[in-house]
């Protein structure tokens, strides 16, 4: 009875080796008096997670470089729970960029209150459109992965983990604000590079979460983009500026 309980608790607290993605019961062992020993993976014979000794800035830099080890550390071996707030903030950034571009294209400078309310409504509308586009993008990814690798998404927890990974990997959208603040002639090019960077981060998040090859995540992202652009075309046919 105790052995079964211990195994169940170990399974619930299992970590992942950042090198081979193998499971590990612990990241390190505390021998008291400040003496810590990093656990060694039984599969690859390397430290389970070397990043537990690293400064957060170095971990962030490695994540920006899209290293699989940094992604595994963040997704499996930490208790980061900011994906919801990060998603909202990224959508606000994207909505602000679209709203700003919409205001730049408008020649109306009337300070009337009705005009100000209309502009405020435009921001909320852009936020809603950005949310629907991102949702359709994620739905396209989930449908493709479920269709091609159903064994990878059998449980509800698998879907939740993948969704969390996708939300965290959209952090590149935070670069939209500096791109607008430091406005120059190359702003459209910067926005395009930010979009590509976010897609690369999404691909790495899918690959790390489901332990896939490099091709399948891009295939899923491709269908996600098709569904997202379908939603954009629908909005344009309705006469909305997106």
Automatic annotation (TrEMBL):
Coiled coil: none annotated. It is found in: Endoplasmic reticulum membrane. One of its GO terms (cellular component) is Golgi apparatus. The keyword Endoplasmic reticulum applies. Keywords: Endoplasmic reticulum, Lipid metabolism, Lipid transport, Membrane, Transmembrane, Transmembrane helix, Transport. The lineage of its organism: Eukaryota, Metazoa, Chordata, Craniata, Vertebrata. It holds the Pfam family Arv1. It comes from the Eukaryota. InterPro entries: Arv1. It comes from Neopipo cinnamomea. The chain crosses the membrane at residues 126-147, 159-182, 189-209, 215-235. Mediator of sterol homeostasis involved in sterol uptake, trafficking and distribution into membranes. This is Protein ARV. The keyword Cell wall biogenesis/degradation does not apply. The gene is Arv1. Belongs to the ARV1 family. Its main location: endoplasmic reticulum. It is a multi-pass membrane protein. GO terms for biological process: intracellular sterol transport; regulation of plasma membrane sterol distribution; sphingolipid metabolic process; sterol metabolic process.
């Amino acid at each position: 009875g105790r052995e079964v309980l211990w195994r169940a608790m170990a399974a619930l607290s299992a970590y992942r080796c950042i090198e081979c993605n193998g499971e590990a019961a612990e990241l390190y062992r505390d021998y008291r008096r400040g003496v810590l020993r990093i656990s060694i993976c039984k599969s690859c014979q390397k430290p389970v997670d070397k990043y537990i000794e690293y400064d957060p800035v170095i971990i962030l830099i490695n994540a920006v470089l899209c290293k699989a080890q940094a992604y595994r550390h963040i997704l499996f071996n930490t208790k980061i729970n900011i994906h919801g707030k990060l998603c909202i903030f990224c959508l606000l950034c994207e909505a602000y960029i679209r709203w700003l571009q919409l205001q730049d294209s408008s020649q109306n400078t009337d300070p009337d209150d009705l005009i100000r309310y209309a502009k405020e409504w435009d921001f909320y509308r852009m936020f809603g459109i950005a949310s629907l586009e991102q949702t359709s993008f994620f739905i396209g990814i989930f449908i493709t992965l479920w269709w091609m690798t159903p064994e990878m998404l059998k449980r509800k927890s698998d879907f939740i983990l993948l969704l969390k990974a996708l939300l965290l990997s959209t952090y590149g959208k935070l670069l939209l604000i500096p791109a607008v603040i430091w406005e120059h002639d190359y702003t459209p090019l910067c926005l395009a590079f930010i979009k590509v960077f976010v897609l690369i981060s999404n691909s790495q998040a899918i690959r790390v979460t489901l332990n896939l090859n490099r091709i399948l995540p891009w295939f899923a992202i491709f269908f996600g983009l098709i569904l997202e652009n379908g939603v954009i075309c629908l909005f344009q046919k309705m006469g909305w500026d997106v």
